[in-house]
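Honest question from a wet-lab person: if I give you the sequences of every part of a complex, can you actually get the arrangement of the whole thing, not just the pieces? Trying it with mine:
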Amino acid sequence: MFAIVDYDTGNTRNLKKAFDYLDVATVLTADPAELAAADAVILPGVGAFAAAMAALNERQLVPVLQRLARDGKPMLGICLGMQLLFKSSNEYGDHVGLGLLKGRVTALPADLGVKVPQMGWNQNVLQQPASAFKAIDQNYTYFVHSYYAVCPTDEIVATVQHGVTVPSIVQRDNVVGMQFHPEKSGQVGLQQLATFKDMVSANDFSSN
Amino acid sequence: MLAKRLIPCLDVADGRVKKGVNFVNLTDIGDPVEIAAAYQQQGADELVFLDISATNEQRRTMADLVEEVSAQVFMPLTIGGGISRVDDMQRILKAGADKVAINSAAVANPALIKAGAEKFGNQCIVVAIDAAWDEAAQMYRVYTHGGKKATDLDALDWAQQAVALGAGELLVTSMDRDGTKAGFDLNLYQALGEVVAVPLIASGGAGNLADFVEVFDQAPVDGALAASVFHYGELTISQVKQALAAKGVIVR
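Yes, you can. This is the full assembly:
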Protein backbone atom coordinates (compact mmCIF):
# COMPACT_ATOMS: atom_id res chain seq x y z
CA MET A 1 0.00 0.00 0.00
CA PHE A 2 1.30 3.43 -1.01
CA ALA A 3 0.07 6.48 0.87
CA ILE A 4 -0.62 9.61 -1.17
CA VAL A 5 -0.31 12.61 1.12
CA ASP A 6 -3.69 14.34 1.35
CA TYR A 7 -3.10 18.03 1.94
CA ASP A 8 -5.52 19.55 -0.49
CA THR A 9 -3.00 20.70 -3.06
CA GLY A 10 -2.45 18.51 -6.01
CA ASN A 11 -3.97 16.32 -8.59
CA THR A 12 -4.11 13.22 -6.47
CA ARG A 13 -6.82 11.57 -8.56
CA ASN A 14 -4.70 11.21 -11.65
CA LEU A 15 -1.81 9.85 -9.61
CA LYS A 16 -4.14 7.37 -7.98
CA LYS A 17 -5.40 6.31 -11.43
CA ALA A 18 -1.84 5.72 -12.62
CA PHE A 19 -1.07 3.56 -9.57
CA ASP A 20 -4.39 1.72 -10.07
CA TYR A 21 -3.30 1.02 -13.62
CA LEU A 22 -0.03 -0.42 -12.25
CA ASP A 23 -1.94 -2.52 -9.69
CA VAL A 24 -0.51 -0.56 -6.77
CA ALA A 25 -3.06 0.00 -4.00
CA THR A 26 -3.08 3.57 -2.69
CA VAL A 27 -4.66 5.41 0.18
CA LEU A 28 -5.13 9.16 0.26
CA THR A 29 -4.34 10.23 3.79
CA ALA A 30 -2.93 12.87 6.12
CA ASP A 31 -2.94 10.51 9.12
CA PRO A 32 0.62 10.02 10.49
CA ALA A 33 -0.14 6.42 11.48
CA GLU A 34 -1.37 5.56 7.98
CA LEU A 35 1.64 7.28 6.42
CA ALA A 36 3.95 5.31 8.73
CA ALA A 37 2.21 2.04 7.91
CA ALA A 38 2.46 2.54 4.12
CA ASP A 39 5.18 0.90 2.02
CA ALA A 40 5.92 4.26 0.45
CA VAL A 41 4.78 7.85 0.75
CA ILE A 42 3.86 9.81 -2.38
CA LEU A 43 3.95 13.59 -2.09
CA PRO A 44 1.97 15.21 -4.92
CA GLY A 45 1.55 18.94 -5.42
CA VAL A 46 0.59 21.69 -7.80
CA GLY A 47 0.50 25.42 -7.21
CA ALA A 48 2.83 27.57 -5.17
CA PHE A 49 5.61 26.37 -2.82
CA ALA A 50 4.66 28.53 0.16
CA ALA A 51 0.98 27.58 0.00
CA ALA A 52 1.88 23.90 -0.14
CA MET A 53 4.28 24.13 2.83
CA ALA A 54 1.61 26.04 4.74
CA ALA A 55 -0.91 23.29 3.97
CA LEU A 56 1.58 20.65 5.24
CA ASN A 57 2.29 22.71 8.36
CA GLU A 58 -1.40 23.19 9.02
CA ARG A 59 -1.73 19.40 9.20
CA GLN A 60 1.46 19.09 11.29
CA LEU A 61 2.89 16.89 8.53
CA VAL A 62 6.31 18.50 8.17
CA PRO A 63 7.99 16.73 11.13
CA VAL A 64 6.08 13.54 10.27
CA LEU A 65 7.41 13.43 6.70
CA GLN A 66 10.92 14.38 7.84
CA ARG A 67 11.01 11.61 10.43
CA LEU A 68 9.61 9.00 8.03
CA ALA A 69 12.16 9.88 5.36
CA ARG A 70 15.04 9.80 7.84
CA ASP A 71 13.85 6.42 9.12
CA GLY A 72 14.17 5.10 5.56
CA LYS A 73 10.59 5.24 4.34
CA PRO A 74 10.58 5.33 0.52
CA MET A 75 9.27 8.72 -0.55
CA LEU A 76 8.40 10.06 -3.98
CA GLY A 77 7.70 13.74 -4.56
CA ILE A 78 6.06 14.71 -7.84
CA CYS A 79 6.21 18.14 -9.54
CA LEU A 80 5.75 20.68 -6.72
CA GLY A 81 5.94 17.68 -4.37
CA MET A 82 9.49 17.13 -5.61
CA GLN A 83 10.37 20.77 -5.03
CA LEU A 84 9.10 20.56 -1.43
CA LEU A 85 11.76 17.88 -0.73
CA PHE A 86 14.51 20.50 -1.01
CA LYS A 87 15.85 22.87 1.62
CA SER A 88 14.27 26.06 0.35
CA SER A 89 12.56 27.95 -2.44
CA ASN A 90 12.51 31.59 -3.40
CA GLU A 91 9.10 31.43 -5.10
CA TYR A 92 7.35 34.64 -3.96
CA GLY A 93 9.76 35.18 -1.03
CA ASP A 94 12.13 32.82 0.77
CA HIS A 95 10.54 29.67 2.12
CA VAL A 96 11.87 26.65 3.95
CA GLY A 97 11.15 23.21 2.47
CA LEU A 98 11.32 19.72 3.95
CA GLY A 99 15.10 19.68 3.67
CA LEU A 100 15.33 16.02 2.65
CA LEU A 101 17.38 16.94 -0.42
CA LYS A 102 20.25 19.42 -0.39
CA GLY A 103 19.33 21.76 -3.19
CA ARG A 104 17.11 24.79 -3.44
CA VAL A 105 14.31 25.78 -5.79
CA THR A 106 14.45 28.88 -7.96
CA ALA A 107 12.71 30.40 -10.98
CA LEU A 108 13.34 29.20 -14.52
CA PRO A 109 15.04 32.12 -16.29
CA ALA A 110 12.59 33.67 -18.75
CA ASP A 111 15.21 35.54 -20.78
CA LEU A 112 16.85 32.57 -22.49
CA GLY A 113 14.54 32.28 -25.48
CA VAL A 114 12.29 29.65 -23.91
CA LYS A 115 8.74 30.02 -22.70
CA VAL A 116 8.09 29.97 -18.95
CA PRO A 117 6.33 27.98 -17.57
CA GLN A 118 7.92 25.02 -19.24
CA MET A 119 4.80 23.28 -20.48
CA GLY A 120 5.09 20.23 -22.69
CA TRP A 121 7.14 17.16 -23.51
CA ASN A 122 10.89 17.35 -23.02
CA GLN A 123 13.66 14.82 -23.60
CA ASN A 124 15.45 13.35 -20.59
CA VAL A 125 19.18 12.75 -20.45
CA LEU A 126 20.37 10.23 -17.89
CA GLN A 127 23.12 11.54 -15.60
CA GLN A 128 23.70 8.40 -13.52
CA PRO A 129 24.24 5.41 -15.80
CA ALA A 130 23.71 2.85 -13.02
CA SER A 131 20.38 4.33 -11.88
CA ALA A 132 17.31 2.13 -11.66
CA PHE A 133 15.63 4.89 -13.70
CA LYS A 134 18.07 4.45 -16.60
CA ALA A 135 15.32 3.55 -19.09
CA ILE A 136 14.27 7.20 -19.07
CA ASP A 137 17.36 8.16 -21.07
CA GLN A 138 16.41 9.96 -24.33
CA ASN A 139 12.70 9.55 -23.60
CA TYR A 140 10.21 12.38 -23.31
CA THR A 141 8.10 13.20 -20.26
CA TYR A 142 5.49 15.89 -19.64
CA PHE A 143 6.38 19.01 -17.64
CA VAL A 144 4.37 21.93 -16.26
CA HIS A 145 6.44 24.20 -14.00
CA SER A 146 7.97 27.65 -13.57
CA TYR A 147 10.54 26.82 -10.86
CA TYR A 148 13.31 24.22 -10.85
CA ALA A 149 15.81 22.62 -8.52
CA VAL A 150 19.42 23.71 -8.24
CA CYS A 151 21.10 20.82 -6.43
CA PRO A 152 24.33 18.83 -6.05
CA THR A 153 25.13 16.58 -9.00
CA ASP A 154 25.03 13.49 -6.81
CA GLU A 155 21.30 14.10 -6.33
CA ILE A 156 20.59 14.39 -10.06
CA VAL A 157 19.51 11.23 -11.87
CA ALA A 158 18.25 12.77 -15.11
CA THR A 159 17.87 16.22 -16.65
CA VAL A 160 16.16 18.08 -19.48
CA GLN A 161 17.17 21.29 -21.24
CA HIS A 162 14.88 24.29 -21.02
CA GLY A 163 17.10 27.33 -21.28
CA VAL A 164 18.95 25.89 -18.31
CA THR A 165 19.63 22.28 -17.28
CA VAL A 166 16.60 21.19 -15.29
CA PRO A 167 16.79 18.17 -12.97
CA SER A 168 13.92 15.87 -14.00
CA ILE A 169 14.59 13.00 -11.59
CA VAL A 170 16.42 13.53 -8.30
CA GLN A 171 17.28 11.01 -5.63
CA ARG A 172 19.09 10.74 -2.33
CA ASP A 173 18.83 7.24 -0.95
CA ASN A 174 15.14 6.54 -0.21
CA VAL A 175 13.96 10.00 -1.23
CA VAL A 176 13.08 10.37 -4.92
CA GLY A 177 11.63 13.31 -6.83
CA MET A 178 10.21 13.71 -10.33
CA GLN A 179 9.78 17.21 -11.76
CA PHE A 180 7.61 15.91 -14.61
CA HIS A 181 4.17 14.39 -14.27
CA PRO A 182 4.65 10.60 -14.57
CA GLU A 183 0.87 10.21 -14.49
CA LYS A 184 0.66 12.34 -17.65
CA SER A 185 3.72 11.04 -19.47
CA GLY A 186 2.25 8.02 -21.23
CA GLN A 187 4.11 4.71 -21.19
CA VAL A 188 7.40 6.33 -20.17
CA GLY A 189 5.79 7.96 -17.14
CA LEU A 190 4.12 4.74 -16.04
CA GLN A 191 7.46 3.00 -16.42
CA GLN A 192 9.11 5.44 -13.96
CA LEU A 193 6.36 4.81 -11.40
CA ALA A 194 6.81 1.07 -11.95
CA THR A 195 10.55 1.47 -11.36
CA PHE A 196 9.87 3.25 -8.08
CA LYS A 197 7.44 0.48 -7.15
CA ASP A 198 10.14 -2.13 -7.87
CA MET A 199 12.66 -0.21 -5.76
CA VAL A 200 10.16 -0.20 -2.90
CA SER A 201 9.40 -3.93 -3.30
CA ALA A 202 13.09 -4.81 -3.33
CA ASN A 203 13.84 -2.17 -0.70
CA ASP A 204 16.82 -1.24 -2.83
CA PHE A 205 17.64 2.45 -3.31
CA SER A 206 21.35 1.92 -3.81
CA SER A 207 21.46 2.50 -7.56
CA ASN A 208 21.82 6.26 -7.18
CA MET B 1 13.95 21.45 -25.95
CA LEU B 2 10.22 21.03 -25.86
CA ALA B 3 8.79 18.84 -28.57
CA LYS B 4 6.18 20.23 -30.94
CA ARG B 5 2.82 18.72 -30.08
CA LEU B 6 0.36 16.81 -32.22
CA ILE B 7 -3.10 16.99 -30.78
CA PRO B 8 -6.08 15.02 -32.01
CA CYS B 9 -9.30 16.81 -31.23
CA LEU B 10 -12.35 14.84 -30.27
CA ASP B 11 -15.58 16.77 -30.75
CA VAL B 12 -18.10 15.15 -28.45
CA ALA B 13 -21.89 15.36 -28.72
CA ASP B 14 -24.25 13.12 -26.79
CA GLY B 15 -21.31 11.12 -25.44
CA ARG B 16 -19.96 10.22 -28.91
CA VAL B 17 -17.13 11.64 -30.99
CA LYS B 18 -18.48 13.58 -33.99
CA LYS B 19 -17.02 15.63 -36.79
CA GLY B 20 -18.54 18.16 -39.13
CA VAL B 21 -17.37 20.30 -42.02
CA ASN B 22 -17.31 24.06 -41.34
CA PHE B 23 -18.89 23.36 -37.96
CA VAL B 24 -22.07 21.72 -39.34
CA ASN B 25 -23.20 18.33 -40.76
CA LEU B 26 -22.08 16.24 -37.82
CA THR B 27 -21.19 12.61 -38.42
CA ASP B 28 -20.54 9.94 -35.81
CA ILE B 29 -16.91 8.82 -35.38
CA GLY B 30 -17.02 6.56 -32.31
CA ASP B 31 -16.60 6.05 -28.57
CA PRO B 32 -14.45 8.71 -26.85
CA VAL B 33 -12.63 6.37 -24.47
CA GLU B 34 -11.71 3.88 -27.20
CA ILE B 35 -10.57 6.63 -29.53
CA ALA B 36 -8.51 8.30 -26.79
CA ALA B 37 -6.77 5.01 -25.99
CA ALA B 38 -6.02 4.42 -29.67
CA TYR B 39 -4.46 7.87 -29.96
CA GLN B 40 -2.31 7.25 -26.89
CA GLN B 41 -1.08 4.09 -28.58
CA GLN B 42 -0.24 6.06 -31.74
CA GLY B 43 1.83 8.58 -29.78
CA ALA B 44 -0.46 11.61 -29.58
CA ASP B 45 1.03 14.28 -27.29
CA GLU B 46 -2.21 15.58 -25.88
CA LEU B 47 -5.94 15.23 -26.43
CA VAL B 48 -8.57 17.91 -26.67
CA PHE B 49 -12.20 17.07 -26.03
CA LEU B 50 -14.72 19.67 -27.06
CA ASP B 51 -18.31 19.23 -26.00
CA ILE B 52 -19.88 20.64 -29.14
CA SER B 53 -23.44 20.10 -28.00
CA ALA B 54 -23.09 21.98 -24.77
CA THR B 55 -23.32 25.62 -25.76
CA ASN B 56 -26.17 25.32 -28.22
CA GLU B 57 -28.26 22.60 -26.68
CA GLN B 58 -28.69 21.24 -23.18
CA ARG B 59 -25.85 21.51 -20.68
CA ARG B 60 -24.16 18.15 -20.32
CA THR B 61 -21.20 17.71 -18.03
CA MET B 62 -18.10 16.03 -19.42
CA ALA B 63 -16.91 15.04 -15.95
CA ASP B 64 -17.89 11.36 -16.23
CA LEU B 65 -16.23 11.09 -19.59
CA VAL B 66 -13.05 12.71 -18.26
CA GLU B 67 -13.06 10.31 -15.31
CA GLU B 68 -13.23 7.34 -17.66
CA VAL B 69 -10.66 8.59 -20.13
CA SER B 70 -8.11 9.60 -17.48
CA ALA B 71 -8.20 6.11 -15.96
CA GLN B 72 -6.99 4.63 -19.26
CA VAL B 73 -5.12 7.42 -20.97
CA PHE B 74 -2.08 8.96 -19.30
CA MET B 75 -1.45 12.14 -21.21
CA PRO B 76 -2.50 15.78 -20.94
CA LEU B 77 -6.23 16.28 -21.46
CA THR B 78 -7.87 19.58 -22.36
CA ILE B 79 -11.63 19.89 -22.07
CA GLY B 80 -13.80 22.56 -23.60
CA GLY B 81 -17.41 23.25 -24.39
CA GLY B 82 -20.03 24.69 -22.12
CA ILE B 83 -17.58 25.78 -19.42
CA SER B 84 -18.91 29.11 -18.25
CA ARG B 85 -18.14 29.27 -14.53
CA VAL B 86 -15.18 28.62 -12.22
CA ASP B 87 -17.23 25.78 -10.71
CA ASP B 88 -17.43 24.10 -14.13
CA MET B 89 -13.65 24.34 -14.41
CA GLN B 90 -13.15 22.87 -10.98
CA ARG B 91 -15.42 19.91 -11.73
CA ILE B 92 -13.63 19.12 -14.99
CA LEU B 93 -10.12 19.54 -13.53
CA LYS B 94 -11.01 17.42 -10.53
CA ALA B 95 -12.31 14.69 -12.82
CA GLY B 96 -8.83 14.40 -14.33
CA ALA B 97 -8.44 17.14 -16.94
CA ASP B 98 -5.22 19.16 -17.05
CA LYS B 99 -6.57 22.20 -18.82
CA VAL B 100 -9.92 23.72 -19.62
CA ALA B 101 -10.66 25.54 -22.86
CA ILE B 102 -13.12 28.40 -22.82
CA ASN B 103 -14.50 30.09 -25.91
CA SER B 104 -17.98 31.68 -26.02
CA ALA B 105 -18.04 32.09 -22.24
CA ALA B 106 -14.74 33.98 -22.29
CA VAL B 107 -16.02 36.37 -24.94
CA ALA B 108 -19.24 36.94 -23.00
CA ASN B 109 -17.38 37.31 -19.71
CA PRO B 110 -13.64 37.96 -20.05
CA ALA B 111 -13.33 38.06 -16.24
CA LEU B 112 -13.80 34.28 -16.33
CA ILE B 113 -10.27 33.97 -17.76
CA LYS B 114 -8.81 35.89 -14.83
CA ALA B 115 -10.90 34.07 -12.25
CA GLY B 116 -9.85 30.68 -13.63
CA ALA B 117 -6.19 31.63 -13.90
CA GLU B 118 -6.10 32.98 -10.36
CA LYS B 119 -7.69 29.86 -8.93
CA PHE B 120 -6.03 27.13 -11.00
CA GLY B 121 -2.97 28.81 -12.53
CA ASN B 122 -2.47 30.21 -16.03
CA GLN B 123 -1.27 26.84 -17.29
CA CYS B 124 -4.77 25.41 -16.78
CA ILE B 125 -6.59 28.04 -18.80
CA VAL B 126 -6.74 27.69 -22.57
CA VAL B 127 -8.68 30.30 -24.48
CA ALA B 128 -10.10 28.82 -27.67
CA ILE B 129 -10.79 31.26 -30.48
CA ASP B 130 -12.79 30.54 -33.63
CA ALA B 131 -11.89 33.06 -36.30
CA ALA B 132 -12.64 33.69 -39.97
CA TRP B 133 -11.13 36.26 -42.33
CA ASP B 134 -13.49 39.17 -42.96
CA GLU B 135 -12.49 40.70 -46.28
CA ALA B 136 -14.67 43.80 -45.87
CA ALA B 137 -13.36 44.58 -42.40
CA GLN B 138 -9.83 43.38 -43.24
CA MET B 139 -9.55 41.41 -40.02
CA TYR B 140 -9.90 37.94 -38.56
CA ARG B 141 -13.33 38.13 -36.98
CA VAL B 142 -14.06 36.13 -33.82
CA TYR B 143 -17.12 33.86 -33.80
CA THR B 144 -18.76 32.18 -30.82
CA HIS B 145 -21.34 29.47 -30.18
CA GLY B 146 -19.66 26.86 -32.33
CA GLY B 147 -19.07 29.32 -35.15
CA LYS B 148 -22.69 30.39 -35.42
CA LYS B 149 -22.49 33.87 -33.92
CA ALA B 150 -20.31 36.68 -35.27
CA THR B 151 -18.78 39.13 -32.79
CA ASP B 152 -17.23 42.53 -33.27
CA LEU B 153 -13.89 41.26 -32.00
CA ASP B 154 -10.69 41.20 -34.00
CA ALA B 155 -8.98 37.88 -33.23
CA LEU B 156 -5.58 39.52 -32.78
CA ASP B 157 -6.95 42.01 -30.24
CA TRP B 158 -8.92 39.35 -28.45
CA ALA B 159 -5.88 37.05 -28.26
CA GLN B 160 -3.83 39.79 -26.57
CA GLN B 161 -6.63 40.60 -24.17
CA ALA B 162 -7.06 36.93 -23.26
CA VAL B 163 -3.34 36.54 -22.52
CA ALA B 164 -3.32 39.72 -20.46
CA LEU B 165 -6.17 38.29 -18.40
CA GLY B 166 -4.25 35.07 -17.72
CA ALA B 167 -4.75 32.65 -20.61
CA GLY B 168 -1.82 30.21 -20.55
CA GLU B 169 -2.37 28.92 -24.06
CA LEU B 170 -4.39 29.82 -27.15
CA LEU B 171 -6.15 27.27 -29.34
CA VAL B 172 -7.07 29.08 -32.50
CA THR B 173 -9.30 27.52 -35.14
CA SER B 174 -9.51 28.92 -38.62
CA MET B 175 -13.17 28.53 -39.56
CA ASP B 176 -12.27 29.17 -43.18
CA ARG B 177 -10.12 26.05 -43.16
CA ASP B 178 -11.87 23.83 -40.61
CA GLY B 179 -12.76 20.48 -42.18
CA THR B 180 -11.62 21.57 -45.63
CA LYS B 181 -8.18 19.87 -45.64
CA ALA B 182 -6.82 22.91 -47.48
CA GLY B 183 -3.91 23.40 -45.04
CA PHE B 184 -3.51 25.54 -41.93
CA ASP B 185 -4.12 29.28 -42.18
CA LEU B 186 -0.47 30.34 -41.94
CA ASN B 187 -1.24 34.07 -42.07
CA LEU B 188 -3.44 33.80 -39.00
CA TYR B 189 -0.78 32.07 -36.89
CA GLN B 190 2.04 34.27 -38.10
CA ALA B 191 0.01 37.31 -37.13
CA LEU B 192 -0.86 35.85 -33.72
CA GLY B 193 2.77 34.93 -33.10
CA GLU B 194 3.65 38.59 -33.48
CA VAL B 195 1.33 39.68 -30.67
CA VAL B 196 1.31 36.90 -28.03
CA ALA B 197 4.05 34.89 -26.29
CA VAL B 198 2.04 32.02 -24.81
CA PRO B 199 1.90 28.57 -26.48
CA LEU B 200 -0.15 28.71 -29.65
CA ILE B 201 -2.05 25.74 -31.06
CA ALA B 202 -3.10 25.79 -34.71
CA SER B 203 -6.37 24.17 -35.69
CA GLY B 204 -8.38 23.76 -38.87
CA GLY B 205 -7.38 22.65 -42.34
CA ALA B 206 -4.91 19.79 -41.85
CA GLY B 207 -5.17 17.55 -44.90
CA ASN B 208 -1.80 15.96 -45.58
CA LEU B 209 1.74 15.56 -44.23
CA ALA B 210 2.95 18.70 -45.98
CA ASP B 211 0.35 20.80 -44.14
CA PHE B 212 1.83 19.83 -40.77
CA VAL B 213 5.39 20.40 -41.92
CA GLU B 214 4.38 23.78 -43.32
CA VAL B 215 2.66 25.10 -40.20
CA PHE B 216 5.56 24.19 -37.88
CA ASP B 217 8.11 25.42 -40.39
CA GLN B 218 6.43 28.71 -41.24
CA ALA B 219 4.40 29.76 -38.20
CA PRO B 220 5.41 30.14 -34.52
CA VAL B 221 3.07 27.43 -33.28
CA ASP B 222 3.75 24.97 -30.44
CA GLY B 223 1.20 22.42 -31.49
CA ALA B 224 -1.13 21.45 -34.27
CA LEU B 225 -4.59 20.13 -33.71
CA ALA B 226 -6.56 18.01 -36.16
CA ALA B 227 -9.57 15.78 -36.22
CA SER B 228 -10.67 14.52 -39.65
CA VAL B 229 -7.32 13.30 -40.96
CA PHE B 230 -6.69 11.31 -37.80
CA HIS B 231 -10.22 10.08 -37.14
CA TYR B 232 -10.65 8.71 -40.65
CA GLY B 233 -7.21 7.08 -40.55
CA GLU B 234 -5.95 9.09 -43.50
CA LEU B 235 -2.83 9.94 -41.52
CA THR B 236 -1.46 8.41 -38.34
CA ILE B 237 0.27 10.42 -35.64
CA SER B 238 3.49 8.50 -36.21
CA GLN B 239 3.42 9.22 -39.97
CA VAL B 240 3.12 12.92 -39.24
CA LYS B 241 5.89 12.77 -36.63
CA GLN B 242 8.21 11.00 -39.06
CA ALA B 243 7.56 13.64 -41.69
CA LEU B 244 8.21 16.41 -39.14
CA ALA B 245 11.39 14.79 -37.81
CA ALA B 246 12.69 14.42 -41.36
CA LYS B 247 12.36 18.19 -41.72
CA GLY B 248 14.16 18.86 -38.44
CA VAL B 249 11.09 19.63 -36.33
CA ILE B 250 11.57 18.30 -32.80
CA VAL B 251 8.92 15.73 -32.00
CA ARG B 252 8.57 13.14 -29.28
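Two things worth pointing out. DSSP finds six helices and 14 strands in chain A. The first strand of chain A starts at residue 2 and ends at 5.
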